[in-house]
């Protein structure tokens, strides 16, 4: 074969190989791990750990709550919208004694995108399907279908998990004079948010080196640049940690 044609063929082949590599990368990243750490709203004392994944339009999510009112159903949703964030626990709302109601927090975490029901429909229509939500601190785990749009938003880290139902007056059940802003047939306690946390895309493991650079025991085989970085980190000491925390705080 003419050497020029051979070269051209080689070039064409190497170009052809590129599109093969791209879909392979896309498919490995199409399942995204999710994690969340919910903290209290309305001084509820409620916390919850969330793990899950989104693969295509299939959402798997597990919630382990602590501190929810026993014997009462707790509506739980993935909200999307607003600033895709949680209001702070001390945010004043329109409920009794400044309690935060659902609509008060809409600017932070938007509307219901997924109702995390125990069975059946999981659309926003089931947002208050009280007979299909966990009771008390029951742990929750389910795999659900969501719309392509919602799946993308969750994979982008825009989801916020909210658990509802707070015993504001400590009576042991949902009651009180102020009605819910979602359903006036219910007291606000039945729907006020109890805990909130962003549904974060789990960070990938850092490639080796960085975390160990400050450890003198492993310094032997580390390239000079890493050693310098390690020394700088060691010199910065607590201040470096503080800066990292601050940066995280700003993201949250
Ligand atoms: Cu909600």
TrEMBL record:
Residues 82-92 have a biased composition (Polar residues). The chain crosses the membrane at residues 225-244. Keywords: Membrane, Signal, Transmembrane, Transmembrane helix. Residues 1-26 form the signal peptide. Residues 80-100 are annotated as: Disordered. The keyword Membrane applies. This is CHRD domain-containing protein. The lineage of its organism: Bacteria, Bacillati, Actinomycetota, Actinomycetes, Kineosporiales.
